Description:
By secondary structure, the chain is mostly helical.
Amino acid sequence: MRQAILLFWPSFIIAALATGLFFSIFDPQELTLHGAQLFADKLSAYSVFFLIAWGFGALNTSIVLLLEKSARQINGFQPPRVDPDAYPDDPPQLRP
């Protein structure tokens, strides 16, 4: 649950800011593709852009969370346990 919150909450904030910034510059009624209007109304333009921006924000945040992990967490590597009594000829060492 903590990973989901770390993933979706920052991407939600990013999407809200990106949507507000984008539509403060561009009017949704003026967005066209090959001469055809992209959206029938402004609310659908806001919704579609917000969901796309949220998806990109989630992708970005998931990459950051993946890069934040250590190699041991990613690979699941656990070094083998060493029994100090297995080598009696070695000099004694301090143990924590």
